[in-house]
Each structure stands twice: as C-alpha cells, then as structure tokens.
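Problem: given the chain below (98 residues), write out its structure.
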Amino acid sequence: MLFLLIGAAIVFGLWYYYNSPHPVAPAEELSDIEKACINSGGDIANSLCCKSSDDFPNLCSIGACGCSPDNSHWVKICDCGEGKCFDGEKCIEIISFE
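Solution.
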C-alpha cells in the first residue's frame, strides 16, 4: 500500500511540474522563435507532441501534437490562448468555416 501511495505522489508531482508555468528566461536569452511567440501574444509552455515534432510546432494544422502518449515527447509550444493558434512563426486567429 505504501508503494502505491509513493507511486501516486510521484505521478502527481510529475504531472504538476509539467503542467505548471515555468519561469521564462530574460529576453536576451530567448531564441528568435520564443521572442516571436511572446511578441505575437503567446506564452511559452510545454506539451506532449508527436515524436516527429520539434519545439514550437505549427499548432494550426492537425497532427503535430495529436499522437498517443507512447508516440509523444515533451516539447516547447507557443500557447496563443482561446481562438488563436501558433503557425510556426506567430499567433494567428483561428478561422472557422461554419
């Protein structure tokens, strides 16, 4: 029973760490794509994305972060907020065709 509690605490701790905001480096230490993300209104975050995805994938297209956990790894993303997505260069409005 003790091992289950310790295991649950470790899993929760990892989940909390990867889902909580992390401090962003000073502007002079940011890469160009990180600056582009922030300058276009986004926030730098971590997310599970397909193993074939690098940091800051195009989140406006389907597929970059749509793989199962077994086929994913942690990458940096640009979280543009509600109604926007990161196209690989900047945050843009999501266009819906209803």
